[in-house]
Amino acid sequence: MKENNVPSAVIKNLTKSYGGFTALRDVNLVLPKGKIIGLLGPNGSGKTTLIKILTGLITNYQGEVLVEGRPVGADTKALISYLPDRNYFADWMRARDAIFLFSDMYADFNGAKAFQMIDRLGLNANQKIKSMSKGMIDKFQLCLVMSREAHLYVLDEPLGGVDPAARDFILDTVLKNYSEDSSVIISTHLISDVERIFDTVIFLKQGEIMLCDEIDTLREKTQKSVDQLFREVFKC
């Protein structure tokens, strides 16, 4: 059973530099369970670096990062369902091959749910993934990620190549497939399309936290949508 009193993730004094460039500077965050969190910022703000540290893809940094109270490592990778912003499938794979692979790799993966979701999105389980459009691959990858019963879902630009008609279905899929014992982090530039499902938003700028607040509190204080506030904070 999951420990409900432990946050999905805790980040303390996190700093990451590449040579002379500081991608993240003294970042402190607590990501509670049961929340959908928008990780927002312009290109180069540190979003991808933060995601890669949380998911264990970057291990050389200063500070402390805990997932479910555990230091990031092999144990925490099994708790996180990660949607990267690029295709990672072998050319020979059909959609069903990837589903069977995920079933073998992850004890918390529900293959029947994945097949149901791709059917709802009009995808063909027998189609080779390399022959799919970018939008089709994005939909398929999201189906795989949301078919796990993970503690933390990390979605990097989940709607980037998806047509507007499918966006509502995908957002509803996210809403229906996480639980009060898990959290979802969504990094996106399509704020106006996604903000309706956010509980909390984080603004990152040049590696520093500019804002972290509950979305209802923000709207009450500023009388603005998240998209409007983002444009104001990050105005060129």
Automatic annotation (TrEMBL):
UniProt domain ABC transporter: residue ranges: 9-231
Alphabetical UniProt keywords: ATP-binding, Nucleotide-binding, Transport
SMART domains, alphabetized: AAA
InterPro entries assigned to the protein according to its UniProt record, in alphabetical order: AAA+_ATPase (IPR003593), ABC_transporter-like_ATP-bd (IPR003439), ABC_Transporter_VariousFunc (IPR051782), P-loop_NTPase (IPR027417)
Residue ranges crossing the lipid bilayer per the database entry: none
PROSITE patterns in UniProt: ABC_TRANSPORTER_2
Gene Ontology molecular function, alphabetical: ATP binding; ATP hydrolysis activity
Pfam families for this protein: ABC_tran
Keyword ATP-binding attributed: yes
Protein name, per record: ABC transporter ATP-binding protein
Source organism (scientific name): Zongyangia hominis
